[in-house]
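Quick one, probably user error.
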């Protein structure tokens, strides 16, 4: 069920899992205006595509209520 860790011949390798460095990584570079504008444009394109698909798909999903049902002549017994 639960496997025990195999013994490691070097102590520093066993302690590497819980080692925390006190050196902070360098800050991430700020996104340029073009990158931010591209992300917004991509997001707006995706949202517009989903809204357009919903608008175009709504008539196909609705059931007609005012249309009279057509019956074939075979169902009327002719």
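Nope, works fine. Designed sequence:
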């Amino acid at each position: 069920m639960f496997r025990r860790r195999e013994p490691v011949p070097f102590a520093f390798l066993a302690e590497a899992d819980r080692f925390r460095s006190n050196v902070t990584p360098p800050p991430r570079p700020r996104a340029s205006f073009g990158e931010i504008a591209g992300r917004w444009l991509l997001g707006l394109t995706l949202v517009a595509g989903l809204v357009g698909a919903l608008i175009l798909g709504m008539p196909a999903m609705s059931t007609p209520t005012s249309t009279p049902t057509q019956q074939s002549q075979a169902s009327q017994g002719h």
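The two ends are 75 Å apart (CA to CA).
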